[in-house]
Amino acid sequence: MWDVEAFTKAAAVTVSELAAYVEESQRGEVPVVRQRPPAEIAEKLRLAELIREGGLSAETYQDFLHAFLSEGTRLHHPAYLAHQVASPDFPAALADFIHGATNNPMAIYEMGAAAATVEFEVIRWMLEKAGFPGGAGVLTHGGSLANLTALLAARAHAAPDAWTDGTPADLVILAPPSAHYSVSRAASIMGLGQKAVVELPTDDLGRLTVERFPEISGKRPIALVASACATGTGLHDDLRAVGQWCRDRDIWFHVDGAHGASALLSPAHRHLLDGVGLADSLIWDAHKMLRTSSLAAAVLVRREGALDAAFQQDASYIFYGDQGFDLIGRTVECTKAELGLKIFLNLAWRGERGLGDFVAGRYAAAHRFWELARRRPGFALPYEPESNIVCFRYGTADPAGIRERMMADGTFYLTSTILNGIRHLRVTVMNPATDDTHLEHLLDEITRLTPPDTRR
Hints:
This is L-2,4-diaminobutyrate decarboxylase. This protein is of the alpha/beta class. The protein has helices at 4-26, 38-45, 47-53, 58-70, 90-102, 113-130, 143-158, 162-165, 181-189, 239-249, 286-289, 339-374, 399-409, 436-449; strands at residues 33-34, 72-73, 80-81, 136-140, 171-175, 197-199, 220-227, 253-256, 281-285, 297-301, 379-380, 389-394, 413-419, 422-428. The mean pLDDT is 94.
């Protein structure tokens, strides 16, 4: 039996500690990241002892939670400028709390009617925004699984018997070298192998160049994958030109919009996805720019039956003929969390316009960083940002060394990537608290940590 009194006490402790954690993180009063060795953290948290003996109570739990939260990465911190993971808004956190207690795995409708209905409506809204009238969709645990699901739908379109007979050897996936790694991973999972991923020509910044596309002979493309936007640079492929090229050749057009599809909510930025309506499939991660906690990613298809063709199954213990409102026929997952509730509660609290304003604000902050950096001597920025991602270098300094020094003392957390064969520092402005003050401080820190002889 669930001890409701103990739960109530522990829940109150959880809310109190998390509120303090978020508040001090937003003020930037603590290191943005801590990464002590696992052995030290395990000892501090008494992990082995608690696993063996148990005995945690509402009182000792508070000490544990406080210690736990002091280790790791603070995504609510204004100096968090690293990976494309949201600083989650509190309505999404409430949804996680609700799911943790109710545990309705709603891919089977009878296991979570309310949660499934919420997902139906969220998907309907996303389809409308993508320009897929009459389409279909499903939410998955992350963009990697979403890309795999979309490519399985594309495979079913190209080779309807592949589920039963195996993937034919002449199938290929067309994609730029800058495509997210989950695309090539999906190729191997599907039995195609890495050699079946045909790299398409791009410009120096990794964007697809349609005028240089080769004609494909002797192979059957499952799909062509375009980015909106590219993970490394935040730059967008020309979806209209690529989509028309695919349509002229009857090739499935897949858009990886995991990060950038949220720009559809910003009137000032939705032009970046011009042509997305030509796509056969689109993925859209809510745990990036829609501010939900991880994970919640949508797979959207333009044609109603395309997702249902991706999977075939027969299990008498769960499939009873007509599946009605079940989503299990559209996804790898059966025990699927109430993902739609996270997106819905953020929308219900902030509204479509509020989320669009958040996207526009973070894109503007990244552009502001680009403006501030290019005014300073020694900073090299290879392109004007289109999203909230900016790549840059400072003199001849080693980007990895700069990043590691900032992470060691917890002042800033950013990433790096290789662009045109050269490693660049990479900023992703995810946090609503990050402003000019923090961006100027970052530039100051980079200058301070760089040896004078490498600043030019």
